[in-house]
User: What shape does this take?
Amino acid sequence: MFSGFRSTLIFILLAFSLLLGACAGGTATPEAVVPPGTEPQVSDEAIVTSSGFECPKAEFPMEVTSTELNLFVWTEYIPPDTLECFELVTGIKVNRDEYSSNEEMYAKVSAGGTAYDLVLPTDYIISLMIRQGMLAELDHSKLPVMKNFDPNYLDFEFDPGNKYTIPYQAGMDSIVVNTDAVENVPDAWEDLWSPEYAGRMIFLDDSRAVIGLTLLTLGYDVNTTDPAQLEEAKNKLAELVPNITVFDSDSPKTALIAGDVDLGMTWTAEALLAQQENPAIEFIYPSEGAILWMDNWAMLKDAPHPDAAYAWMNYSMQADIFWLMLKDFPYINPNQAALDFAKDNQTDLYDAYMGSTITNVPVEAVENGHRIQDVGDTTPLYDQIWLEVKGG
Amino acid sequence: MSMLQKLRENRSSQGTLLALPTTFWMVALLVLPLLLTTVISFGKRSPDGEVIYTFTLNNYIRLAGFDPNCPPADGTCFNPLYLQILGRSLSLAFNTTVLVILMAYPLAYFIARSHPRKRNTYLFLVLIPLWTNFVIRVYAWMMLLRKEGVINNLLGLLAGWIGYDFKPLEMLYTQGAVLVGMVYEFLPFMILPIFTSLEKIDNSLYEAAADLGANPIRTFRRVTLPLSLPGVVAGTILVFIPVMGTFIVSDILGGRQVILVGNLIQRQFLDARDPTFGSAASLILMIMTLVVTYFYTRKFGFGEEIVAA
Assistant: This one.
């Protein structure tokens, strides 16, 4: 009797643990950043966040009837003060879900049934989302914040005339090196094939970027759909993969800082944050050209709160708020007005931004850069090559 | 006659009614999705990664290693990539299960033979790790295994004392790390069923064996082992099947270099945006697991005694 009871208990616990395990890969439901019921403040009294940051007034005040805004954004990509200020100043409650890859976002949104207003897609997935009719056209008359942006970061191939998107931040995938540990510092993608670096490298777990840089070393286009060129790239990449210790797109800086690896490829902010931990870590723009990308706000076609979405884009990217990005998420900042604001008011941050070639990218490096585009029918082939070089 | 009375008299409709909630649950969340997966697996991928519903075997041909666009006679098109991935998953699941049995059995035996008052404490200790999220436990192994991690630092310290020149071991991001992670994750699922079956063995059986002159080894072989086999079988099913499909452990501890069939399937639904191929791979995984489990249980049974306990 007693033993029977215990076995039952064990099996209940087991089943429970299995369930817990099964949930491990799932995403969380939207969660409120600040308790609801915060009323818009009308008095002249300063509005201050819990961290003591004084919220600026809305530069472009909007008429908003919605009381909520649902964001679906990259993990760790919005300064907490920005979120809190938006809620305090407008009285709109922000619900935020996070994703860690464009594909994850696309899969969730295309499955339908989401109630997101804004997403933060990168380059190539935008053209796909536009083709699939997933995005709403933006009304530029409701986006005065548009004037803040450096024209060099507008009107890209993935969205001519910025009909559907507005820039957030840009970055590059390039070579990162711990110059204390590496004797000969590479200056081209091609150099990474050197046996000197075997077993010391980290790469992003990004099939398009890594196959793309291999194509570059062969003199081909990063977006090629020619099976013969891809076959050649596969054979070349197969020589490199055994030299790579780890593929990581979640937090590549960790392995660099921990000393697990000495060099490899990573993206802008990871390199900068690693450099802040260890000044010997440098970001190098290879002669074949680095991979350029940009994250952009886009509104979903069935967004339930478009008015709040416009209010968000205008407020979160006005100059006296967006400079916070220089502090919290130092990527390449296309928001010229925010940079100008920082120049006058946040000199240390501005100097650090302008003084680092990681954020203030040399013009040649940008001109020399390449953008990943959607390759349609060739996508499965890229994936097959990726699996083949890694698992074959 | 009221409905209730009718029901009271009719035993078979009682059964139907009792099974209704579970039946509904299984149909809605198992049968229907399975059917959908089957249908999708015979479909085609559109350039944008949508499913075009049609009937083609191309996904299965690709899985078997042949290029559907290649003339079948041409041997150069054969590429065993996916077969290798399936094979690797199978052998990893097999190795994990064997290691888990070897480690779980002695512990379960120890717990079952210990004083009844201590047993609950021991069982409690076995279950405690399961209260922490699966992914966090895997990350903890990263801290232990990395080049400047706990194990390497301890070994370095020891080596320093005896004056031995120590080079940090490369443990993280290897197949071995994935195996260690899997064994760790699934160990409790083997300990508990084995314990349950060992605990039920009547002490008088051991006494009888001793009376009849069996030495401890013989007693173990002729009494303990056969009677605890149902526990091993139940544990094997609980371990083998999830290991076949898990992708988190190989993602984190394998440095994304150890590709298992779980990783393959996950990539099809995300990076490759090819749900049709992903569905085909899922079905093949399921069929493979079923076949292995079928032959295994035909030989050893389901461990029903344990499940019924």
